[in-house]
Amino acid sequence: PAEAVPQAPEDPLFGLMRAYKADTSPDKVDLGIGAYRDDNAKPWVLPVVKKVRIPFFFAFSEGTGTCERWRNCQTWKGDRNGAVRNSALNPAMVAEEILRNDPERNHEYLPIAGLAEFTSRASELLLGVSSAPAAEKRVASVQTISGTGAVHLGALFLAKFYKLNGANRTVYLSNPTWANHNQIFTNVGIPIATYPYFDKATKGLDFEGMKRALAEAPERSIILLHACAHNPTGVDPTPEQWREIAEIMKAKKHFPFFDTAYQGFASGDLDRDAGSIRHFIEQGFELVIAQSFAKNFGLYGERAGCFHYVASPAADAAETTTRVASQLAILQRSEISNPPIYGAKIASIALNDKALFAEWQENLRTMSGRIIDMRKGLRAKLEELATPGTWNHITDQIGMFSFTGLTEDQVARIRSEFHIYMTKNGRISMAGLNTRNVEYVAKAIDAVVRG
Ligand code: LMR
């Protein structure tokens, strides 16, 4: 059968990563994949992830004594029921130690829907604590293989159940969008259309174009929306614009499919970054959300994410949700059986502990703050160089990415002449910039823009 298999192109983003790794130039700069880097261009294991502890009573058997096995721990007292759980006595441990020592981590299967204490806190992060959908039992949450798995599970669910006269409804993606959206929906047979999003002239939102397309799309279309920190453009609607988008979508009975991979990166505030989703929920939409913890927890390779279905308020909403959850379980079982533990466990411990949660928010501010500094730095250097064009969009755009406006030719030149790697569409991952390379990058942009 393999004779019929044509050669597929390499994934552009992972191909870029491979090319960057193979480049031996000491000047090389990676502005490709959306993964946070510190000021030394190194991956950053969040301090909160390193600090996550297992509860005291998990760590010890019985009695009193000195613990030698645990880092940062002097003496401990306690019984196995956790009678003494003074946090000062709690050994601070790195994540790897949890993995090794948590007696609960016995490599058994998680339930099909994943780790409940993780998925319920994950949904709270989006909907807010004590939200109406949670109180009314109209949220079904499933742990997924990060955001990609969540988009896929949602797409699969819609391909099976959201049809018109037996045919799949069309999903409208922003133009441009995260490249993977196209193939995920195509793979499950959902037709794709686009709505205008990026205005090349202003390097901001093409709001009129977007509204027109949403108004013209057939009723009950699926509309994929980036909840915040749009990938690849870094351009988000304002709260007022979100309200208008919701109004049009309500009038057209469209189905919102939110993708949220950057909560905490847009404004640095988790609640604010969930504002678009919360507004749609307040408006009574039935919707789905794909949620990734890759970026905001720095758990890229651990694949921690969730898919959430939220029913609109109705007398039978809880019953509808139960039915949806039962179908999601079947889909999940046939695809991955049950999700992986490690990343979800780390995120869950941090999300469910008050002090660690506060520290996580601090870590998020560190990441988003450094990115904002780099935006300011890059813009200032380009303006200092009087590089042709305007550069305010670098600081106007938000989140992990900036859509520079560089052409495909310029992107190719900056790579071959300066060893600077970015996606063909001119997107740069702002986290790839640091105090040492920002000037070099600005000068390179200046050179290619001048031709
Ligand atoms: C990106 O767009 O760079 C990230 O979302 C990584 C990915 O999986 O594509």
From TrEMBL:
One of its GO terms (cellular component) is cytosol. GO terms for biological process: aspartate biosynthetic process. Pfam families: Aminotran_1_2 (PF00155). Residues 93-445 form the Aminotransferase class I/classII large domain. GO terms for molecular function: L-aspartate:2-oxoglutarate aminotransferase activity; pyridoxal phosphate binding. CDD domains: AAT_like. It comes from the Eukaryota. Its EC number is 2.6.1.1. Keywords: Aminotransferase, Pyridoxal phosphate, Transferase. SUPFAM superfamilies: PLP-dependent transferases. NCBIfam families: PRK09257.1. Homodimer. Belongs to the class-I pyridoxal-phosphate-dependent aminotransferase family. This is Aspartate aminotransferase. It comes from Schizothecium vesticola.
